[in-house]
Write the structure tokens for this entry.
Amino acid sequence: MNSQRITKCLFPAAGYGTRFLPATKATPKEMLPVLTKPLIQYGVEEALEAGMDTMAIVTGRGKRAIEDHFDISYELEHQIKGTSKEPLLREIRSVLNKCTFSYTRQVEMRGLGHAILTGETLIGNEAFAVVLADDLCDNRDEQAGVLSQMTKLYDKYKCSIVAIEEIPMDKTNKYGVIAGEEIEEGLFRITDMVEKPEPKDAPSNLAIIGRYILTPDIFDILRVTEPGKGGEIQITDALLEQAKQGKVLACKFKGTRFDCGSVDGFVEATNYFYEKSKEV
């Protein structure tokens, strides 16, 4: 199955978004807008740019707004038809015309690894991408998006790939951190991965961010992965099993990433995209 191009992108979107309470009490964090567009739509557009047309979304209770967003609102369209507001829906209409959406629910919060495993019924036996919507990535100067960069590498190496960036050493306890050997510029074959290590225990300052390409054997590994920190099933533990067979690469991507799971990162992203919108 590895010879196929990647057409499916999985969005784990079941978390509570507690760092944004009370805003996320009734609104999914993935629907928080950066300017006029919700976070998850930026991720879907990045996946579309990379050639993926099947979006698989793992949701939870209180996340119906995501499904409603990626659907046609006949009443709204009728209301604004023929007015100056009609072009404002052009982008989302274009997304709806180009891809399909399917959904399943993660009944209990048991970590990112468990959320990805929950999405197996939507993915099947093929390689797929994963986007964490609160890691918002952008590429100026018409560069390829992060997923496009990663799919190009997948076409060459046919194995799991994670996106990484350099972070300050005092922030390692917030990320999964890798160790590896550089096999070409900005591309590492992973030898070790540690989930949220203290700075003194971190193998490097290369942190995994919310972009993955995973081969389908990850599901079998996740099924037998024991819970780690916080009683959660960690995707890093499953990827480490693949890495022991030399089957995981880490790509230092080109572009800018904002941690929109934090208030500081969300404000930075808003300011960045506002300035960018004025350049057009």
Remarks:
- Residues 8-279 form a domain with the Spore Coat Polysaccharide Biosynthesis Protein SpsA; Chain A fold (CATH 3.90.550.10).
- The mean pLDDT is 91.
- The chain is about 30% helix and 25% strand.
